[in-house]
Design brief:
This protein has about 475 residues and is α/β, with parallel strands linked by helices. The chain is built from 18 helices and 14 strands. The strands form three sheets. It has a six-stranded mixed beta sheet with strand order 1-5-6-10-12-11. A five-stranded mixed beta sheet has the order 4-3-2-13-14, covered by helices on one side. The chain has a three-stranded mixed beta sheet with strand order 7-9-8. Strand 11 and strand 12 form a beta hairpin. Helix 1 runs antiparallel to helix 2 and helix 5 packs antiparallel against helix 6. It starts with a helix and ends with a helix. The relative contact order is 0.10. It is a multi-pass membrane protein. Pfam families: Metallophos, PPP5, TPR_1, TPR_11. It comes from Papaver nudicaule (Iceland poppy). GO terms for molecular function: metal ion binding; protein serine/threonine phosphatase activity.
């Protein structure tokens, strides 16, 4: 066994990791493992790289392998605990951090992290105990009357006159947001409540018609990168009836301007209902928002009352769109079984938090894979699906193309599955560290061929990503 070569590969992998080249690091750690499969460090390091790519399922597998190779290797438990934590599985994380503490009883860092984890689990138990379930639960939206909220005389920001959100209001609001000024909660309530009414009336799968000679733009994840969202509008124009958009989920979390992003998209929906379509992503959920920053940001910038309201409105977002009967658009991907028809998607009762399995879960979480067939998800939720699965789904539903988002791509997009599937991601230099471009896709009717436009990140104020995220999570990132 050439252990010296394996160590050299580990050193190269560590360098790639430091340069944020996580895929390259994974390849190099894999080569080291192929030479020496009995070194727990290689698996734990590869687990860390998977965590950086949000491939938590793969990270858990690798960390578990590190523990099998060396049951006393504390970093194996540490990495697995961190991956469980990122998935919101606090109880599983706690077991691993208890093990870290057992192996390293005098390590102050291990003690501190275990205490934080215990606090998080206690908080979760408390929230579960006081939660109201099912039919007893009252709509937060129905208890709010924004008309009764007074606007203080000293408020100088954007105002909605009456019931109608106008272009002038939107432009003033965007200008205020750009200068890090807040929108008055009266108008924030008005925008969110009006958007809720529109979204509730939509089916779970929305059919969109684009007239001959007209165009339609599809954007992927924005993830709270407000200044990059503004740049999309600079490059491609504001949404309108003549310039319609679909934003394909994951509007919030990670980036620290998520509130500005969601209020912008919702205000545009109020202003021009047919000019902007919104789909649900896996981050439009309570569990993700609690961990990745949106909940903390809303609490800091507006008030705690808004947290439940946004959660309620996110449950109204449609799950998929079809353009001109040809292009199927969904945040995550396809299904664990063949034979799913568009009519099955229309029938999904989406007015809930995303379940951990089934069609709705798979629409929000799944990813394509290069191999045919189906495989386990790198993320630990949903599944991976091959080109044959994509081809059968398109044939059975008389469609031409799948467009999805959900994954950061170096060029902002990737074309896979023999040209039948495109991933589009619209958050350039994701989390201020990935160095990727962003992209959007423009379709022109009637041929509906995808025209992909890429763009680079723009400067934003010095507020770091995850600034409002769960403190506990930040300790491990």
């Amino acid at each position: 066994m050439d252990t010296k070569r394996a160590e050299e590969l580990k050193v190269l992998a560590n360098e790639a990791f430091k340069g944020n080249k996580y895929n390259q690091a994974i390849d190099l750690y894999t080569q080291a493992i192929e030479i020496n499969s009995q070194n727990a460090v290689y698996y734990a390091n590869r687990a860390f790289a998977h965590t950086k790519l949000e491939e938590y399922g793969s990270a858990i597998q690798d960390a578990t392998k590190a523990i099998e190779v060396d049951p006393k290797y504390s970093k194996g438990y540490y990495r697995r605990g961190a991956a469980y934590l990122a998935m919101g599985k606090f109880k599983d994380a706690l077991k691993d951090f208890q093990q870290v503490k057992k192996i390293c009883p005098n390590d102050p860092d291990a003690t501190k992290k275990l205490k934080e984890c215990e606090k998080a689990v206690m908080k979760l138990k408390f929230e579960e105990a006081i939660a109201v379930h099912g039919s007893e639960k009252r709509s937060v939206a129905e208890s709010i009357d924004f008309h009764t909220i007074e606007v203080e005389p000293q408020y100088t920001g954007a105002r909605i006159e009456g019931e109608v959100v106008t272009l002038d209001f939107v432009k003033k609001m965007l200008d205020d947001f750009k200068n890090q000024k807040s929108l008055h909660r009266r108008y924030a309530y008005q925008i969110v409540l009006q958007t809720r009414e529109m979204l509730r009336a939509l089916p779970s799968l929305v059919d969109v018609s684009i007239a001959e000679g007209k165009h339609f733009t599809v954007c992927g994840d924005v993830h709270g990168q407000f200044y990059d969202l503004l740049n999309i509008f600079e490059l491609n124009g504001l949404p309108s009836e003549d310039n319609p958009y679909l934003f394909n989920g994951d509007f919030v979390d990670r980036g620290s301007f998520s509130l500005e992003v969601i209020l912008t998209l919702f205000a545009l929906k109020c202003m021009t209902p047919s000019g902007i379509h919104l789909a649900r992503g896996n981050h439009e959920s309570k569990n993700m928002n609690k961990i990745y920053g949106f909940e903390g940001e809303v609490k800091s910038k507006l008030s705690e009352a808004f947290i439940e309201l946004f959660a309620e409105v996110f449950c109204c977002l449609p799950l998929a769109h079809v353009l001109n009967g040809k292009v199927f658009i969904v945040h995550g991907g396809l299904f664990s079984v063949d034979g799913v028809k568009l009519s099955d998607i229309r029938k999904i009762d989406r007015f809930c938090e995303p379940p951990e399995e089934g069609l709705m879960c798979e629409l929000l979480w799944s990813d394509p894979q290069p191999l045919p067939g189906r495989g386990p998800s790198k993320r630990g939720v949903g599944l991976s699906f091959g080109a044959d699965v994509t081809k059968r789904f398109l044939q059975e539903n008389k469609l031409d193309l799948v467009v999805r988002s959900h994954e950061v791509k170096d060029e902002g997009y990737e074309i896979e599955h023999d040209g039948k599937l495109i991933t589009v991601f619209s958050a350039p230099n994701y989390c201020d560290q990935m160095g990727n471009k962003g992209a959007y896709i423009r379709f022109d009717a009637p041929d509906m061929k995808p025209n992909i436009v890429t763009f680079s990140a723009v400067l934003h104020p010095d507020v770091k990503p995850m600034a409002y995220a769960n403190n506990f999570l930040r300790m491990f990132s």
